[in-house]
Specification:
Elements lengths: L12 H13 L2 H5 L7 H9 L3 H8 L3 H13 L4 H10 L14 H28 L11 H11 L10 H7 L1
Helix pairs in contact: 4-5, 7-8, 7-9
Length: about 170
């Protein structure tokens, strides 16, 4: 019986980039914490003892416009340009980041396994159709084959593209 060795992960430029981003962003959310319910503009303005009219004057907008911006921030609809403008008027700096929920390398590996499983399932259906052979049910593909194919799919074009049929079979 031939045993197949599982390939080691390739240390690609993208893999290095993912690890670097994970390190850079580690703990950002814990350090900053969640957005205050009343929004950062309002919290900073209150902490500085600044009225909405005074902030408006510093931004070159009216007091009602400041109230609109604060409401938009609370509702999550404020634009980055308006946040940046408010930050400058509050003598603050806007820090913007997308913080991954889990390590990026794990996200990519999971996607590669999902794609590998979908491709193996699709190829099995073709074999069944052409040769009339039995087809394993989706998700029952040989684990070693999934691992090998997933390894080859990482950082390749199309990793994030699944056809409708592939999505149906991996869910």
């Amino acid at each position: 019986m031939h045993t197949q060795t599982v390939p080691r992960p390739v240390k690609s430029i993208r893999s290095s980039m993912r690890r670097g981003l994970d390190q850079q962003l580690a703990g950002v959310e814990a350090t900053i914490g969640p957005r205050p319910a009343e929004g950062w503009i309002r919290v900073l303005r209150d902490a500085l003892g600044m009225t909405a009219s005074e902030l408006g004057a510093r931004m070159g907008v009216s007091q009602p416009r400041v109230s609109q911006l604060e409401r938009a921030e609370r509702e999550g609809t404020i634009g980055l340009q308006n946040l940046e403008r408010a930050a400058r008027a509050l003598h603050a700096k806007l820090v913007y980041a997308l913080v991954p929920i889990e390590p990026l390398e794990e996200v990519v590996r999971r996607q590669a396994r999902l794609k590998a499983n979908a491709e193996i399932a699709e190829n099995s259906r073709v074999v069944h159709f052409v040769l009339g052979e039995s087809v394993p049910r989706p998700g029952e593909a040989d684990e070693a084959h999934i691992t090998v194919l997933a390894h080859h799919l990482i950082d390749r074009p199309g990793l994030w593209h699944l056809t409708g049929a592939q999505w149906h079979n991996v869910r």
